[in-house]
Amino acid sequence: MNDHNLAARQSLSWSCLKSLAAVCVLALPAMAVAGEPPLICFGNEPSWSVNLTEPGTAVFMTPDTEAIPYSGAGTRNEVLKESVWRGTPEDGGDLVVFLRGAACSDTMSDTVHPVVARVSTSEGRFLAGCCRFPATEAASSNKTLESVSWRLSSLAGETPPVSTTMARPIIARFEAGRVSGFSGCNNFMGSYAVEDDVLTFGPLAGTMMACAEPDMAIESAFRAALSDTTRYSISADQLELFSESGSGLTFTAEPPPRLDGVVWEVTDYNNGRQAVVSPLIDTGITLSFEQGIVSGHAGCNSFRAPYSTEGNRIEIGLVGSTMMACPEEQMAQEQEFLAALQSTVKWKLDGNILDMHRADGERTIMATSKEH
Q: Which tens digit of pLDDT belongs to each residue from 171-226?
């Protein structure tokens, strides 16, 4: 692969498109080079993954084969509105990855990913799946902006205040150039850039549900104000966003989320084969965090392990459990759940929903609070 091919790749640009899945999605250009967002692509039935996080390299994996690195480059097919990444290993045939910006369901969870992937291998296999952006660490320059969830408390020109009219608060979260949250009726996502007090947003993407008024009107006004933002200011627990006209949005910092003091009932876990699945019926997987110890029921046995947190990061120590025997399927589930728990490094709360992830951004566990 030469430098000319790398230079020919295009940068990611956001656009909001309506699709049959009724979401706004990405318009995807050619594959990422240095400084552009990387991708992790994957599929189920059969399980496979292609890691495109390193410029000029793709790593293809399946459960029954070793990881195969490919060297190559991406090009843009404007006629088909898709990107094509083609690479060759040290020994063997080409790997071709077709990428298109569109809503993509992974078939194993309720997550909608922004990119559709199709993979062709030298053995004649043609695989289908989705792509996501891997998790990254927050930039130090906007650490304060990114360290909390922000609840909208004032929207320029709206009466009465949003906080007194919305059944569910409008929330915005900032992390590593990605903004996401709830805008009054729908979940939203998008890109942002920050330098000193200058804050700008790319086009917003999100779900396209219809809601009753006044929620729809408030959502439209909120998204318009967010898109018009040119600068921001943080004072104590208040975030203000300003447009060229001076009007904008005011947010209040949500109290820091807490893991402890709650019994969490697991609704989904990662089975280690790139699939997020629900527990077997009546197995009752639970989690409790208290004074540095996470404990609960793993579906057959009770377990406990030390843990520590720093912000939204978590480290789970060695897991110990009782030694009761259960049916084979139940025991397999228990091992998969405990492995998912052990691999968890990040967590966040959305109301009474606990969402946990691995270092590569893949979800490990979802749970709901039994107290709600």
A: 898 987 888 888 888 889 888 888 878 899 988 888 888 888 888 888 998 999 99
Of 36, 15, 12, 3, the C-alpha closest to 204 is 15
CA distance 100 to 17: 12
SS3 337: helix
Per DSSP, the residues of 58-105 read: EEEEETTEEEEEEEEEEEEETTTTEEEEEEE-SSS--EEEEEEEEEEE
Residue 179, helix vs strand vs coil = strand
The stretches of the chain forming alpha helices (DSSP H) are: 3-7, 143-146, 162-165, 215-227, 328-343
CB 229 within 8 A of CB 247: no
Q: Is there a contact between 102 and 116 (Cβ–Cβ < 8 Å)?
A: yes
d(CA 263, CA 259): 9
Closest CA to 70 of 82, 56, 81: 56
Please report, as a single letter, which amino acid is at residue 318: L
Omega into 214 within 30° of 0, i.e. cis?
yes
**Pair 100, 119: CB distance under 8 Å:** no
Q: Of 302, 299, 340, nearest to 320 (Cα)? A: 302
Q: Are 135 and 346 in contact (CB under 8 A)?
A: yes
Would you tell me how many other CB atoms lie within 10 Å of the CB of residue 171?
19
Q: Give the helix ranges, DSSP H, for 83-201.
A: 143-146, 162-165
Cα 52–53–54 angle (5° rounding)?
95
pTM of this structure: 0.46
| Sign of the Cα pseudo-torsion (362, 144, 219, 168, in order) | positive
Assess contact for 192 and 180: CB atoms under 8 A.
no
